[in-house]
NADPH:quinone oxidoreductase family protein (Ramlibacter cellulosilyticus), 329 residues
Amino acid sequence: MHAWLCENPVGVDALQWKELPTPQPKAGEVLVEIKAASLNFPDLLIVQNKYQHKPPLPFVPGSEYAGVVAAVGEGVTHLKVGQNVACLSGTGGFGTHTLAPAQLCMPLPPGFPFVDAAAFIMIYATSHHALVDRAQLKAGETVLVLGAAGGVGTSAIQIAKAMGARVIAAASTDEKCALCRSIGADATINYTQHPVPTAFRDAVKAATDGKGPDVIYDPVGGDFAEPAFRSIAWRGRYLVVGFAAGPIPSLPLNLALLKGASIVGVFWGDYSRREPKANAAMMQELARWYGEGKVKPVIDRTMPMAQLKEAYARMGSREVKGKLVLVNP
């Protein structure tokens, strides 16, 4: 097998494409022949030694991937050799093969292509957990999605629309705003043209007839957090999803008091570990929604696995709309 090996987590440039022994699965594991792997923001942080999970060195990055089961370990009964699966295991995806815990593998129904499957679990699980479980979103409510043209942002738009909500999507270019409208957003805000804090808050106020959004989905953080939270509706729910902008913001807690609003943490990874039955039911619902056409990953482009460093550079340039997916021949 071949894989991108991280022997020193000082950044993307230190990754090396190496030939490695093809491993055999131990009890509870499967060997997956990787067909496609998506690039997520944590995949950048982990090779910079900035992610909360720090795997022992050396490791192969690539948190999310899809492929074919090539071998099964002892005790694995729900998966078979030749079965198509998707997996989010945190590492291992940027190569030709990897070992995966069998319980983390999602069997793919017929007609679920590898590229979509490799871009599915992280973004849709995060957004479903955020909007359905944590925000208790109701039909007719308004959701403001920040960073709306990215992977989690596009998934949040689709899930909110599937639940009957009105969606305002905030993104940084007219092209990204057009993408958001094409997948269901009811209104868009180009925050380059409506910069934070004042112009952005005015745009949110105008888009909600002065009421403010009932739910704010924020994977961005940074300078957007406080002006977004100041715009929230009475009894609104502010979802803390991530900090793609870099700085972790501080919010004045008097705003929560004045608006009767909730600041709600979203950590799907721990939810899946602590509440596995609820998580499994959620994933079944998401797979059903995919089959019904309610959700479908927005694929920015596919690139050969050998071009991983170029893919990282594209993601770092903020050009990506939806998800980047690496594919093996």
About this structure: The chain has eleven helices and 15 strands. The first strand starts at residue 2 and ends at 5. Residues 122-268 form a domain with the Rossmann fold fold (CATH 3.40.50.720). The two ends are 13 Å apart (CA to CA).
